Amino acid sequence: EEHRWVVFLHHKGQLPWLESCKDVEIVYAPIRHYTLQEQLAMPRIFSDAKLDLLHVPHFNIPLMYQGRFVVTIHDLLWHERRDRNATTLSPLMHILKYHVYKFVAETAIRRAEKVLVPTEHVKQIVKSFTTEHHIVVTHEGASDAYARVAKKADRPYPYIVYTGSLYPHKNVSYVLSILEHIQDLHAVIVSGRSVFQTTFWSEILKRKLEQRVHIEPSLSDESVASLYVSAVALVFPSFSEGFGLPGLEAMACGCPVLASDIPVFHEVYQDAAMFIDPYDATSAVRELKQLMQEPKIKTMYQRKAETLMRLYSWKHMAQQTLQVYESVGAQR
Q: The pTM is what?
């Protein structure tokens, strides 16, 4: 309460609960992310607010902004995996955009007073561009909506869930491979509409799985939680992630998690998830068959998840973030 807060929103109604918060000034800036307009207009908008400190919660800092700032780097996926299939741009425009992204992201990391990252895994990657003492790990958490689920979803049972985007690195076709091995299993895909949805649906049709794959383009946290409660498991077969929030949200609902055997998932989920080979769907098939045949396995992982969830909360993340703001302010 001793601080003055300025929050920059794209449009009215974006975060209606903020309007009743005291000590908060809302500034509307109807400017698209990752555009030239963002780079040209936002420095003036930020400067007019006379900020002591700006927090940019993604890599896209306006390069011409001269004030002090901290930045959140959720991952450096495109540094790790450069995938031509992850864009609809022409090859020339893709190369240009890729190099602009790298320049902006690396400049953000180098110029920031502090860099916030969600895991030690991401910290090790970000260390290539700044000193270690500039990086602070702030773990994410699961919304309360996932811990107080009142109802189950009305879905064909048994089913598995995938939650996330359809970018190639998410490896969502893995879910279709599972269905080919377990004939009576359904899958619910919770993913916002994107240019990749048409391609994914074409693959579903090619494999003749359209009767067993159900795509939900947009759901509330409460509706997603209801899906988790009655699912066999969340399947999370990504090749690369910065944290893995859907896994925690599923665990909060008592839903078992099958996650890729990659370092970041071992760090976040510890022993509360079943780890699968993202290149071999039969490893997930074995785990799912056991889950469906032996209820005690689900109970065991639910207990492990309850212990794990105590390590993560948005409130703790907020407290850590505030400490970063205040430590940077004290250095003036």
A: 0.89
